[in-house]
Amino acid sequence: MRHILVMNPKGGCGKSTIATNLASWYAKRGDAVALADFDSQRSSLDWTAARPADAPPVAGVAAFEDGLRAVPRSAEVVVIDAPARAHGRELNELVRRAETIVVPVLPSAIDMRAATNFIEELNEVSKVARQQAKIAVVANRIKENTLAFDDLDAYLRRLRVPYIATLRDAQNYTRAYARGLGIFELPEYLAWPDWEHWRPLTDWLEGPASRP
Fold this sequence. Notes:
This protein is 44% helix and 19% strand. It is of the alpha/beta class and 212 residues long. The longest helix has 19 residues, at 188-206. It is globular and about 45 Å long.
């Protein structure tokens, strides 16, 4: 069973958006997927509740209540939507459950400073330090050809963590979420630019560099 943790202790950085879209990508390609929501705001669970009956199934798990105990044994991929403000013991417990960690970062000075501190803390977690969990960062909600993105891009390239993908700020994510869908389940004519932005991340997740 593969466990992919999407986390950043700063709220509003797009963890649930990335988690739901990862879940839909794996489901669309035929994997048995569970989406474990550790955030009591229930953004990922609300998405699974809105998912159409004819869409590839994604099992929603209220992990903020019972942890991962309710994950179906048949699940091949578990996408974990972490809560905001996870530090210390809670951070260690979340990382203990994962082999792969995706950290979204927004193009703002506040988010970059928060990411610096978080990556330092994450690298000190024993499982990460022993290379038993692999980390990657993703630039999220970017607007190309802006100074804010240029600053974020330069910052992420300086981090000693793989910088995998840049995901644009697009209404397609809002459209998809409201319908319980992922970006990969929208019509090609509408979403193909976003599919291209996601490709480096999905390729990394499928390759050996994302696994211990």
